[in-house]
Amino acid sequence: MAKKWVYLFAEGNGTMRDLLGGKGAGVAEMTNAGLPVPPGFTITTEACREYYANDKQFPAGMWEQSLEALKKVEQQTGKKFGDAKNPLLVSVRSGAKFSMPGMMDTVLNLGLTPDTLPGMIQLTNNPRFGYDAYRRFIQMFGKIVMGIDAEKFEHALQAKKEAKGVKLDTELTAGDLKEVGEEFKKIFKAETGREFPTDPYEQLRLAINAVFASWGGKRAVDYRNFSKIPHDLGTAVNVQTMVFGNMGSDSGTGVAFTRNPSTGENLLYGEYLTNAQGEDVVAGTRTPQKIAHLHDEMPAVFDQFKANAERMEKHYRDVQDLEFTIERGKLYMLQTRGGKRTAQAAVKIAVDMVNEGLISKEEAVMRVEPVQIEQLLHRRIDPSAKLQVIAKGLNASPGAATGKAIFDPDTAESLAKQGEKVILVRTETSPDDVHGMLGAQGILTARGGATSHAAVVARGLGKPCVSGCESLKIDYENGQFTTGGATVKEGDLISINGSSGEVILGAVPMIEPEMGAELKALLGFADGIRKLGTWANADYPRDARKAREYGAEGIGLCRTEHMFFEAERLPIVQRMILSDDPRVRKESLDKLLPIQKEDFKGIFRAMDGYPVIIRLIDPPLHEFLPSYEELLVEVALLREKGDKPDELAEKEALLKKVAAMREANPMLGLRGIRLGLTRPDITEMQVRAIFGAAIEVTKEGVVAKPEVMIPLTGHFNELRIVRDQLEGVAKEVMDQAGVKIEYKFGTMIEVPRAALTANEIAEYAEFFSFGTNDLTQTTFGYSRDDAEGKFLLEYVQRGILPNNPFQVLDRDGVGELMRIAVTKGKATRPNLEVGICGEHGGDPSSIEFCNSLGLNYVSSSPFRVPIARLAAAQAALTQTERDR
Amino acid sequence: MAKKWVYLFAEGNGTMRDLLGGKGAGVAEMTNAGLPVPPGFTITTEACREYYANDKQFPAGMWEQSLEALKKVEQQTGKKFGDAKNPLLVSVRSGAKFSMPGMMDTVLNLGLTPDTLPGMIQLTNNPRFGYDAYRRFIQMFGKIVMGIDAEKFEHALQAKKEAKGVKLDTELTAGDLKEVGEEFKKIFKAETGREFPTDPYEQLRLAINAVFASWGGKRAVDYRNFSKIPHDLGTAVNVQTMVFGNMGSDSGTGVAFTRNPSTGENLLYGEYLTNAQGEDVVAGTRTPQKIAHLHDEMPAVFDQFKANAERMEKHYRDVQDLEFTIERGKLYMLQTRGGKRTAQAAVKIAVDMVNEGLISKEEAVMRVEPVQIEQLLHRRIDPSAKLQVIAKGLNASPGAATGKAIFDPDTAESLAKQGEKVILVRTETSPDDVHGMLGAQGILTARGGATSHAAVVARGLGKPCVSGCESLKIDYENGQFTTGGATVKEGDLISINGSSGEVILGAVPMIEPEMGAELKALLGFADGIRKLGTWANADYPRDARKAREYGAEGIGLCRTEHMFFEAERLPIVQRMILSDDPRVRKESLDKLLPIQKEDFKGIFRAMDGYPVIIRLIDPPLHEFLPSYEELLVEVALLREKGDKPDELAEKEALLKKVAAMREANPMLGLRGIRLGLTRPDITEMQVRAIFGAAIEVTKEGVVAKPEVMIPLTGHFNELRIVRDQLEGVAKEVMDQAGVKIEYKFGTMIEVPRAALTANEIAEYAEFFSFGTNDLTQTTFGYSRDDAEGKFLLEYVQRGILPNNPFQVLDRDGVGELMRIAVTKGKATRPNLEVGICGEHGGDPSSIEFCNSLGLNYVSSSPFRVPIARLAAAQAALTQTERDR
């Protein structure tokens, strides 16, 4: 007996992708789930392989089995292949294991012949439809099965339209289309040297052969080479009954979701048209009815459809997006697939399904894309709004804002105090602009990357920011900016979308953020599953409170230097930096001490009982000083004018100091622990402030858990010396107060050498925190500020890098260093606490990687903590799956 | 029977360091080699351990064995311990396995008592010597053995001098010294509560005990803790006969080398004094005689000494530095050790000894410090000259030069053309200064590290350079600089020592470099031993010729961009960079093509048959443009004056372009392969030039072996694309000419990611070259220009880093990445060619590491090639030793 080459849909199931291809297995699964699928059969991939092994001949028995299957289909449909009255028409489609462009797509209406066409016309009572279907079939068959240049058919059609003086296909009459069909047959004969087949069996045989042949076609082979799909899989062939929704008022077609894909509400959601084909629903020439209306029009069909929908949702255990056709009162389900949904719907549906007992909490957690959640947590632009986008920059800090475009920080601040909403627009921002940024709704800059001053401060403040919008030409003098063709004058309303980087003319409708009950429930499921702690980066008490609200279990990074930038502190900081007199320096630090202590107290109170990692001063000191370039110009002008010798002398002296502190590559300069070693007075003050604050809040009953983090260690000796010194200070402060605080000392791992020598560094560190922003910069040798504007985005666009490594952790390079650091660090200190506080801490792919490394926590901006909670749970589930 | 605690010198040998300590084993070796060593014995370290195990009691039998040994010494010397006529005096010294500060040093003249002193006076016929020796013994014994504060004795001596109205010890008479001795005994009694011992055996017992006790003293324990020397080794005690060169005209003392330590000439070299002690030779009150004169004065002793010297040189198979004393016609050898020698002598001696059959070539190679060779290859300051050093900067490029201090490059150039020697002195240099640098003898800058423009260009030119001499205040307007107290006016003569970083007032005597026959022979030995290839970095044909002369076997790094900086080319380069018009860019590149081709032809000719690695353009393009800061000031001033609107507009436009190309961290910016991807036209021109040049010289009969090196790869995709493009260009050029050139394509490994993903990168690279300068920068996160001035030197001084990692390769961090890269790279491509072209390529420690990694070659500046040849041979020998 011959091998079984052909499976009726009812004979297969969803697991048989290898044999039946993806499409064949899917339609078999639907059939077996009891859905009224138009009957049909699948010729196996094995048959295709045999075809190639056998010099492109159908394997023995395959054609006979296909004919038998066709007979069964005729029985099921009550139609007959080639029958003049009630003809069975079929579609023929390829279907490999993997979806694959370059293979034969679809031939519809196969079985139409001069004999069967009249029957179809009679059944649909629509000659135009009949002739149109026939000429389309000839065209499709000619092109797809026989490889005739599509241009030839288009040309003939065009000629007909010109002859008729019409422009659109739809303006052609039934008679016209009949003539076109005849014309097409002539083309067919001219091109192939044979008559267009009038025998439906011959049509079928040719179509099946064409599917097999297309597997070996150049485009398919190229695609498989590119996608590394083996060449010996072969493709299946699916032959399925055509059904028609345009056979009268008891026919129709429609699409529906089992639940509302926009809100998640558990109600059938969709629309349909009677006496219509699928393309009519899309074309928009007639207005479709809401699906509920079907209940009135065809109550039995509606009930059947509803039952099918429910069954499919139960079967696939997810919201389904269904396509159906009603042919003369009989319902056919054409397709069912997982329904795309909004963030809000995704969360609600997942939680509802858990409550309904349909899915487990683990499944619910896997059903929502973590990044979708971000949409729910920032004010965002109403997706239905029409926007006049005038420019695009970097999406530097998420959220959206509308306000008057204001070009200087003083005006921004004073307008904000009067209750005006403003967007601060600057070429780039500096510490001198912070007061204006505090007042603004959002920040827009023409220069600077995603770690530029504007971006970092904006994220810290939780304000939307678009940075590095290079097309912006800001004309401060005339109070306007231009971009492309648009000109915005100071005071004009603009909007920015910090999540997309778009700059929009005028005000736009906004949707306020919400942390609804369903989201809370979903994150609750996630909390029960994840292994990674989810901490937050927060520099101010208000950020810490926000972080707690979003579920943060600790502060992974509190940057102390932002506190230095605040307007009333900066002059003290500058005096401290610039003075050569140790007394002046000490005096300045003494002034800063109580201020920093207050900051820390606020954070400790907000994080009562949770750890707070405080990073000691990191940036080069010259960042706190006035701009070298501005001073240079000022001095040159003062010299030229020569009328203010005192001011000149003063500025010259300042210039000299600023010049002496300048660095060619500040990113790689005197910063981090290097500052701690060369200017120990600053870090000592900071440690005094940290422990002083911890002691004072302890007396209020707050549990403070400071962890002192030393940035940029590269050699264990650095850490040994600095830790010795600072732990001494900490002990002195605690001894003086007679209060013991639970604390840790640790370091950031942010230069490759620290990772490579982590075994030595762990001798002096109780915790590691991966500063993956800097680690990415040093591992790639990229300055983020320079790279993103100058070549990195081009790299991603050209596929040189799979992602922007500052957004998605580079596993092969940076990740490899992390792996080395974790392994070596834990070899020295098995209970080493390891986390990540770079921006990757809020990126799901990076979180997955951190989970696989066995880190203790990820720390992200407060707004991303919910994302991290969900992503961490997904990572834990994926890992469990992988380990199985 | 008791254990053997005591060894006569004749009973031990050089291998018994564990038991006899270093000193004891050494003196035993000398004795056994047949040298007339003053007899003595060693008490073992085991005795010391037993002493500590036994509550600080001498182990049973030790004292008795010591007395027995003493008897044998008496027999050997014909003297007697405590004898009034011919007393045996001894020295007592500690001697652990490792030389160790903090332990008891030496007690001399032990055995002097009121009974034996007269005998000594008689024997020496020198009462002053006798009394002086006695008071010194009391003082030494009191201080070292009994722990009396040395101040007490000094105080009494001072009082005597004051009483006598004299200033110097030597002005005191025999009678004065006798009284001092009595005074010292009183102090001894007052401090210890006992009389100064008059029994020589008690003196000996106390001294031995003091040696043992000093092993457990605080300073010794601290030192062992610091140096990680185990505490349970114990120390030995050496007791040795004193001999005296001041016992009349048949006595004397001297020092000599077996060969001339300055020239290496094979002749005894040294001096002596008759009737004198060792300290008299040093004191300089009498003029010593040349050693040859001893032949006339005491022919028998001279012959004996000469024979001893020859025997010792043969025994130790190296030049010996000998100390001897003649006591009443009898020669004693006090010490022999390897003789320190100059670079020149070291080379000559090593080669001579091979020729004499005394040592092997391998040994000869191990006898010369590679860095010593450098002295022989640069003009250097006569080491005997007295210098007025006025400042110190970085030793940025080796060699020395004298010339007029000139502050601007134009003057420097024109004076040089008139035959004047000038030193170009600048705050820092830029491409605009190169013509002045070419004319100057040397370069001195106030700012910039060892990779600053000045340093890199100077090394390339082989000119001495002192950079980053921060104390220099240059006053261009008044044509002078000051440093410390010194002021140098333009035109004053100064000298610089680029090997030490010194700046010297006035002209200084110089020694010209030489590559003598002996050095060539030694390097020939090295070439036969080493496994590493020694290549050179050379940017110009003249450097390549120099490299060949010094034995380079290839060019490891030819930097193409230096060629762009030359005066006549820079304007073309700038136009090419600044133009937005592709035609102008192409036109500029077309002009540069033949110029670059000529450069390469010269290099190929010089390296006929040897590989030449040419690195494509690496620095950010803005390095070729005018200074942003200068333009900023120019524009501000032009605006202020408002009288030159055209010039203002032009400068504004230029400023805008320069501003757009500025980078926050150019080291991590748009450079290297990133330029190759974003501005492929430049690298394409370079590849055309390389292959064009190779083809043209091939027609001359030259064998050109270009290897195209792409800098700064971080991801294999970068290299894949660039290599594809450039190899296409190369093939096109070769096809057009119909000439096939043997070539390779490869990349630098200079960012950590490249090392970590070397397996992927090796798919597209036939060779790797470690750019360890940049790799050190990125691995540590150090910008070299910033770090060296701002914290790195402090780090090295404070011991935070063991070395400046830009000079000596950091094995734990950078080296670990290299190890990973070699392992992963060779896993993909077993025949991968791997080398190093960073500055470490010329550093012996780094070369040793490269040898251990199995690299193919090291590449250094031409002047360091001989160093590399020697260091590579030493590395191979050390490795073989280790592998054994």
Question: Which features does this protein show?
Answer:
homodimer; 884 residues; alpha/beta; eight-stranded mixed beta sheet; eight-stranded parallel barrel; 35 helices; 33 strands; elongated
Set out the fold topology.
2 copies of one chain form a homodimer.
Chain A: E1 6-8, H1 17-32, E2 40-43, H2 45-53, H3 62-77, E3 80-81, E4 87-88, E5 90-96, E6 106-110, H4 117-124, H5 127-145, H6 150-164, H7 174-192, H8 200-215, H9 218-227, E7 235-241, E8 252-257, E9 269-274, H10 278-283, E10 289-290, H11 294-297, H12 299-316, E11 320-327, E12 330-338, H13 343-355, H14 361-366, H15 370-377, E13 380-381, E14 389-392, E15 394-397, E16 400-406, H16 409-417, E17 422-426, H17 434-439, E18 442-445, H18 453-461, E19 465-467, E20 473-475, E21 480-483, E22 486-489, E23 493-497, E24 502-505, E25 510-511, H19 517-529, E26 533-537, H20 541-549, E27 555-559, H21 561-565, H22 570-578, H23 582-606, E28 611-615, H24 628-641, H25 645-661, H26 673-678, H27 680-699, E29 705-710, H28 716-737, E30 744-749, H29 752-756, H30 758-761, E31 767-770, H31 772-780, H32 784-797, H33 811-828, E32 833-836, H34 844-853, E33 857-860, H35 865-883
Parallel strand pairs in A: 3-4, 16-17, 17-18, 18-19, 26-27, 26-33, 27-28, 28-29, 29-30, 30-31, 31-32, 32-33
Antiparallel strand pairs in A: 1-2, 2-7, 5-6, 5-7, 8-9, 8-11, 9-10, 11-12, 13-25, 14-24, 15-19, 16-23, 20-21, 21-22, 23-24
Helix pairs in contact in A: 4-5, 5-7, 6-7, 13-19, 15-35, 19-35, 20-23, 22-23, 23-27, 24-25, 27-28, 34-35
